[in-house]
Each structure stands twice: as structure tokens, then as C-alpha cells.
Design goal:
The complex is a heterodimer. By secondary structure, chain A is α/β, with parallel strands linked by helices. A five-stranded parallel sheet of chain A has the order 2-1-3-6-7, with helices on both faces. In chain A, strands 8-9-10-11 form a four-stranded antiparallel sheet, with helices on one face. In chain A, a hairpin with a 3-residue loop joins strand 13 and strand 14. The longest helix of chain A has 15 residues. The two termini of chain A are 36 Å apart. By secondary structure, chain B is an alpha+beta fold. Helix content of chain B is 48%, strand content 18%. In chain B, strand 3 and strand 4 form a beta hairpin. The radius of gyration of chain B is 51 Å and the shape is rod-shaped. The two termini of chain B are 56 Å apart. The chains are: A alpha/beta, B alpha+beta. Chains A and B meet through helix 1, helix 4 and strand 14 of A and helix 5, helix 6, helix 7 and strand 9 of B.
């Protein structure tokens, strides 16, 4: 899968390329708005990593043009500007995600993958936490490579939690995900499914924990030793 | 020295003093002019009387002078009436005719006196005032004197003078007071552009540094002051702009090298060194981030119309921070309101404040305890932990920049709470620090509740 990195700092650009190549991506490097504009007119990338402070202009201009052409290539914006207004204008211009320097390469890769796994995007095989795997195509959970039998609701909850690895999923998000717009949902329904899922996972020896963050939601993480 | 609060009161006070002085001076001047006028009338009357007396002087056959007065004049100068008197004096000072008993002159005659003279004298207790007129009758020069006893003088003229003091004199005071009222109205009108300029100036704040005072209506006397203010605002605006630019530049210059360092460390082969360096970079990144936050807050201003959902902001921070807390063996819980709680302010900044409070609480909370966020309907968010609490003597210190109890603690710059305080200031919010009964610290931020969801 080919990514485009638009970053004017040569050193950072090289390091990013090295990290992304290690993670299994092919990477093209560009350093100016003009170059990026020209290349994006003719080439389609799986995703674009875009720095905002470029020598010949603002990276947001490229993003706006892309969205204006109805091009939905995921764009992950990198910036040194952590300012409130900057963050808002970046997302309004159609950025899919936003990272403030200095960022962890690991997190960049994780967020990139999250974008690439979105419906309609290219990355689509499986998600892993410890010995738990979730096959996105077959919608199947595996523990130590052994397929597990889970109810469809439990599978839906697990998929959502694993797609949001490292982030808290609100109770509302879980409700929307499993019940959609089907109307009335018992107030403790989510708790019930999470409870069942938790029990199933621990019974089958998955080394993961589903944390309840009271008043906020749920978070799946590797079990602590 | 009396200090006047306003120009109007200064004008009123000084004007009242001026009115008092002017009304006294005017009355005095008018009455003096009036008495001058009466005097003139009297003198003219006396001169005329002397002239009409002189008309009756004639030469007799012996070359002597005779004075044949018609009966009406005889009556006027008669002793019983006593009001008027006359005398005719010759060059030698000899009295030829007189209405006075003893045939004396009314005024001691001065042969060298001019054609017409106005004189005063006393006969007994009576004050006499009159005129002496030189006439030449048949080659002889005589002085005809006519006088009036002032005690009996014209009642009408006297009344006018007396009346002036009693009634007419007072008219000056209301006229002057009316003038004062008109003056105040004129001044208020003249100062109106200044009041309008002040109202515009009221709106100037860090959020609206672009406003300038209009010069159009401003009186030319005040114009230099107003344009000086506008120039000062230009300089302030420039200062804010430079500060914002500096913050953006500094962010770039500091964060890009940190990113490079971090990425380099992440791709190191030895995972032990990588982990150690990674922690160092983390804490340095945090300090840089907080310093830039502070720099940004210095030049930041909140739109007074902005409102934020405190419940949603708290939930977002709790969700964001929960994975980090769990990693460190602390739990997060969000309690209290479950529906939106609208407060005045900027959502991003409110989140920053709550996040700094939460990071602070997580740092001080013992392992396996819960850091709780409580959102109340009245616009309060409280972050509480089960840590050691805050000694009374440190309650002020904790908000100081770079203050830390333990200076060796990694990843703690001592900036977090000063950021919270600055954000609270910008929002007109108050911070309350308490120790919990069962142990631990509790920080409450009381924001200003907003009436309802904003008009979009």
C-alpha cells in the first residue's frame, strides 16, 4: 500500500519513511505544496500524511482542493501548531485525523491503520490485542488462533472495541453500533452484552481486559500481568 | 482643593459662583446707573428752573434789576411749600433776590464760576441740591440759582430706585440661572461624541483589538487624545500579533526537532535504551506543550458569546485520559450530570483545564484508586483523588508556575495548575481547592452558567 508523506523537514521525512516502511508501507516523500498538488492530480494514494507548515504555503490548501474534487483519500494532518483555532480549522478542512508534533511513530501508524480500516478503505484483514484476534472480513474472533463462537451482538461489541483500540468507546456508541436505529433499547442492554463478552473472553483464556470507565464508556486493553 | 469628578459638575459649580458674583455686581452697577440717571434728571430740571427764573429778570428805569414772578412761580418758591428755593447773585457776590428768609444766596456765589454749575449745600438739616446759571441782563452779569430740598424730592423717582432693589434687581438671578441651564445643555451636547467614543472603547478587549475610536464627531480639542489612544491600541494590537506569531514559530521550532528525536529513538535497535529515552522525550514534550499552551493563553481571548457543554467536555477528557490512567493503574470515573451543562467559554480551553486537573490528580492518586470527575448542573466540574491532599500552606503555591513539591518528579513541569488558573481567569471562573474528608484532594472549577444552547 502506497502512502504519500508531505513534510518539508528532510530529516523528519526520512525518519517517517523509515518507520512506515518498517510497518509495511511503500512511501513517497514530497516537500512542497506545489509538488504535492501536481502529484495528487495524477496519482491516488492509500493515504496522505500532510504537514501544515510547508515552505511554499499552507498544507491545508492541498487538503481543501482534494476534498473539493470529492477525493476521499484519508488525510492525516501533522502540525507543530497545537493552537485551538488551528486544530478546529484543520478538521473543518476535511482532515480525517490530526496529530500535533511531537507524535509517537507507533501512534501515527495506529491512527493511519484506523483510517485505512474504515469502511470503503483499503486495509481490511484483522485486528490484534495480545492473543485475541478479530478477523474483520469473516467477523470472527480468534483466541490463540482458535475460532470462537460468540453471539452476533457480542461479536458487534467486540469489533467496535477492537477497532477503537486504545480509545474509550462511549456507551452511546456501543448502543448505536449494535442496535442501530431500531428504537427502544433497554437501559442496561449494553452492560449485559459487555458483561457476557467479558465472561466469554476470560473463560476462553483471552489475555485482554474490557475496562468500564464509569460515566464514559468501555476500553479494551491487554491484560496486565 | 476640590476635585471634580466630571466636567459638567465643574462647570455647574464654577458657573454658580460666577452667577452669584455677577448678580451682585450687576445689581450694584444698575442701581448706580439708575441713581446717576435720577441725578441727571434732577440737575436738568434745576437748570431749567433757573433759566425760567432768569427769563423774568428785567432792567428798570434806574438801571437796576427787577424780578417779577408770575403767581404760579411765586407759589412754587413760597416759604410754606419749602421744597424749592431760588436766589439771584451779582458779580460782587451780593444777593439781589432770594426766596429764602433773610434774603441770602442759596449757594455761596463764585463769580468766576462757569455758565452752568450743579451744586449742593446744607441749610440747617436740609440737604439742598440745585443749579447755578450765569446770565447777562442789560450788561450786568448775574447768577440765577435754583435748588430743591432733597428731603422733599420727587417721590416717583425715589420709588423707582427703591423698587429696583426690592423687585427688579432679583430678575438678574433667574436669568443667569436660565443661562446656566442652557450652558449645561450645550456642554452635554458638545461632550456627546466623547460619551459615544467611551462606549465604543468599552468593547475593546483582547478579543477585539481591531476596534478603533471614530474621529469624525470628536471635537478638535479632544482629538489629539483620541488619536493617541488609537495609536496606543495599534501598538497593543501589534504586540498581540507578535505574541501569537512567536507562539506559532516557537511551536514549530520546538516540536519538529522533538518529533525527529522521538522517531529516531523509536527506530533504535536496543529496546531498553529506547524505552528510557522515550520517557525522557515524553516528559520534555509535555513541558514544551505546556509552555506553548501558556504562551498561547497569554494572547488568547474568549468570545463573550461562546458557550460550551461542560458535561461533554468532561466526558471527552475522561475518555481521552482513561487509557493513560489505566496504564498507570488508576481508574477514571465520570459522575454527576448526564445531560448537557452549558457554561460560558471555549470548549477546547475548558477541556485543557480539566485535563490538567486530571493529570495532576492521576499523578498524586495511589495505585488502584479512582480519580473522579463530578459535573454539576450549576456549571461546576470537580476532579477528586485519594492522594495525600494539599497542606494549607501550599494552597497558593501550587498555582505558581514551575512550583513542585518534589522537584525530581519526572514528567511534572509544575505548569499544569498555572494553566488551569489562567483558563479559569479567562472564563471568569473560580477555583476551589479542598481536602476530602476521607483523604485526598479535590479541585472544583465553577464556570458561569450559560442560559441555554447558543443560537447557531
Amino acid at each position: 500500500m502506497r502512502l504519500l508523506v508531505v513534510e518539508d523537514n528532510a530529516l523528519l521525512s526520512e525518519l517517517l519513511a523509515k518507520g512506515l516502511r518498517t510497518a509495511g508501507y511503500e512511501v513517497d516523500l514530497l516537500a512542497t505544496v506545489a509538488e504535492a498538488r501536481a502529484v495528487l492530480m495524477t496519482t491516488t494514494y492509500a493515504a496522505v500524511i500532510l504537514d501544515l507548515g510547508l515552505p511554499d504555503g499552507d498544507g491545508l490548501a492541498i487538503l481543501r482542493e482534494l476534498r473539493h474534487r470529492k477525493d476521499s483519500t484519508p488525510v492525516l494532518v501533522l502540525t507543530a501548531r497545537g493552537g485551538l483555532q488551528d486544530r478546529v480549522s484543520g478538521l473543518r478542512s476535511g482532515a480525517d485525523d490530526y496529530m500535533v508534533k511531537p507524535f509517537a511513530l507507533e501512534e501515527l501508524v495506529a491512527r493511519l491503520e484506523a483510517q485505512l480500516r474504515r469502511p470503503g478503505q483499503q486495509l481490511g484483514n484483522s485486528l490484534h490485542i495480545a492473543n485475541l484476534e478479530f478477523d474483520l472480513r469473516g467477523r470472527q474472533a480468534l483466541i490463540d488462533d482458535q475460532p470462537q463462537v460468540l453471539s452476533s451482538r457480542e461479536t458487534a461489541v467486540l469489533e467496535l472495541l477492537m477497532r477503537s483500540k486504545g480509545r474509550v468507546v462511549s456507551k452511546k456508541q456501543v448502543e448505536d453500533h449494535i442496535f442501530g436505529l431500531s428504537g427502544d433499547v433497554a437501559s442496561n442492554a449494553v452492560e449485559v452484552y459487555v458483561h457476557r463478552l467479558r465472561k466469554q473472553l476470560s473463560d476462553k483464556g483471552a489475555k485482554v481486559t474490557i475496562h468500564t470507565i464509569r460515566g464514559v464508556g468501555y476500553l479494551i486493553a491487554e491484560e496486565k500481568a | 482643593m476640590i476635585r471634580f469628578k466630571s466636567i459638567i459638575s465643574r462647570i455647574v459649580i464654577l458657573h454658580v459662583i460666577a452667577v452669584a458674583i455677577t448678580s451682585v455686581l450687576m445689581s450694584v452697577a444698575l442701581s448706580w446707573l439708575l441713581s446717576m440717571a435720577t441725578n441727571n434728571i434732577h440737575n436738568e430740571a434745576m437748570e431749567e428752573q433757573a433759566m425760567s427764573l432768569a427769563a423774568h429778570l428785567a432792567l428798570d428805569a434806574n438801571g437796576g434789576l427787577t424780578l417779577e414772578l408770575p403767581p404760579n412761580l411765586q407759589g412754587l418758591y413760597s416759604q410754606p411749600y419749602g421744597r424749592y428755593s431760588y436766589a439771584v447773585v451779582d458779580e460782587a457776590g451780593k444777593t439781589l433776590f432770594s426766596s429764602l428768609p433773610g434774603k441770602t444766596a442759596v449757594f455761596a456765589a463764585d463769580p468766576r464760576a462757569g455758565t452752568v454749575q450743579f451744586l449742593e449745600t446744607h441749610i440747617g438739616d436740609a440737604a439742598i441740591s440745585g443749579a447755578s446759571v450765569r446770565r447777562i441782563v442789560g450788561g450786568r452779569t448775574v447768577w440765577v440759582q435754583a435748588a430743591e430740598d432733597l428731603a422733599n424730592s420727587d417721590v416717583l423717582i425715589d420709588d423707582i430706585v427703591d423698587d429696583f432693589y426690592k423687585h427688579v434687581g432679583w430678575i438678574t438671578l433667574p436669568i443667569l440661572l436660565l443661562l446656566l441651564v442652557i450652558d449645561i445643555a450645550i456642554f452635554r451636547r458638545a461632550l456627546k461624541p466623547l460619551r459615544q467614543a467611551s462606549e465604543i472603547a468599552q468593547q475593546i478587549g483582547p478579543a477585539r483589538t481591531d476596534i478603533r475610536l471614530p474621529l469624525g464627531e470628536i471635537p478638535s480639542e479632544v482629538r489629539p487624545l483620541v488619536s493617541a489612544i488609537n495609536k496606543a491600541l495599534d501598538r497593543l494590537d501589534e504586540g498581540f500579533r507578535l505574541q501569537r506569531e512567536f507562539t506559532a514559530d516557537a511551536a514549530h521550532e520546538l516540536r519538529t526537532p522533538l518529533s525527529i528525536l522521538r522517531t529516531r529513538v523509536e527506530t533504535l535497535d536496543d529496546p531498553r535504551i529506547a524505552k528510557a529515552l522515550h520517557l525522557d522525550i515524553e516528559s520534555m514534550s509535555r513541558v514544551v506543550g505546556q509552555l506553548l499552551d501558556i504562551a498561547e493563553l497569554e494572547a488568547f481571548a474568549i468570545d463573550p458569546a461562546e458557550v460550551a457543554d461542560l458535561q461533554a467536555a468532561s466526558a471527552e477528557v475522561a475518555g481521552f485520559i482513561a487509557p493513560l490512567a489505566l496504564e498507570q493503574g488508576r481508574e477514571i470515573a465520570l459522575l454527576g450530570a448526564t445531560t448537557p451543562v452549558w457554561v460560558k467559554g471555549n470548549a477546547e480551553m475548558i477541556k485543557r483545564a480539566i485535563r490538567n486537573l486530571a493529570e495532576n490528580a492521576i499523578r498524586h492518586a495511589p495505585k488502584d484508586t479512582v480519580v473522579e470527575f463530578v459535573v454539576e448542573e450549576n456549571g461546576t466540574v470537580t476532579v477528586q483523588d485519594r492522594g495525600p491532599g494539599i497542606p494549607d500552606e501550599e494552597r497558593e503555591l501550587i498555582f505558581r508556575r514551575f512550583w513542585r513539591r518534589d522537584r525530581n518528579q519526572q514528567g511534572n513541569s509544575g505548569l499544569g495548575l498555572s494553566i488551569v488558573q489562567r483558563i479559569a481567569e479567562l472564563h471568569g471562573a473560580t477555583i476551589e481547592v479542598e481536602n476530602r474528608v476521607m483523604g485526598g484532594a479535590q479541585f472544583s472549577l465553577h464556570f458561569i452558567p450559560a442560559a441555554s444552547y447558543p443560537k447557531t
